[in-house]
Amino acid sequence: MAKTDAEVIKKIYEATNFASTWYGVPVERVRSHCWEESRWCSLGTDPNILSPSGHGKGCMQIDDRFHDFALSSAVFDILLNIGFGTRFLSILYQTHSQNWTYASQAYNGSGEAAVEYAQKIEQWIKEEPWLPICREAGLSV
Fold first, then answer.
1. Rounded CA gap, 13 and 134, in Å?
2. How far apart are CA 88 and CA 5, in angstroms?
3. CA distances from 91 to 32, 37, 122, 133 (A)
4. For 67-105, b where at least 16 C-beta lie within 10 A, e where not — what string?
5. How many structural domains comprise the chain?
6. Is residue 89 part of a domain?
7. Separation CA 12–CA 38 (nearest Å)
8. Residue 138 belongs to a domain
9. Range of the domain at 122
10. Mean pLDDT of the chain
């Protein structure tokens, strides 16, 4: 892994820790959403990643059709992007019976695709697929 890649991975890891603590969302859930949305910004190479549609932006793929924040350049700041996505998860948790699975479904919309999305989040929470890239970046995980 190139040095800049390791720096991006470290920033993402630290941002997930901070946002998790700040908004009261379990850190594994934050990391899992970030993983599902961007594979941690395509394994640390591009924190400015866009979805194929061009609407989802950054590590947490904040959609500019639903969130004005995504219309600003701040959406590509790792800490702000992960913070915004984590705050959104926290709000969804409060509005969906304080159930993390329902909050994860709502993060991605509704219907069958949202159910499948939440199942992937639960899978990532169990598997923690980001651990190898974190170790390569020099993090003690």
1. 8
2. 27
3. 17, 18, 19, 30
4. bebbeeeebbbbbbbbbbbbebbbebbeebeeebbbbbb
5. 1
6. yes
7. 11
8. no
9. 3-133
10. 92
Q: Tokens representing 132?
A: 């190898």
- For 41-82, the pLDDT digits (tens) are 766 677 788 888 889 999 999 999 999 999 999 999 999 999
Q: The domain that contains 56 carries what CATH number?
A: 1.10.530.10
- The DSSP annotation for the chain comes to --HHHHHHHHHHHHHHHHHHHHHT--HHHHHHHHHHHHHHHHHHT-TT-B-TTS-EETTTTEETTT-GGGGSGGGGSHHHHHHHHHHHHHHHHHHTTT-HHHHHHHHT-SSHHHHHHHHHHHHHHHH-TTHHHHHHTT---
Is the pTM for the entire model greater than 0.90? Answer: yes
In a domain, 139, yes or no: no
* Closest to 8 in 3D by CA, of 42, 35, 45, 49: 45
Contact criterion met (CB below 8 Å) for 55 and 65: yes
140 in a structural domain: no
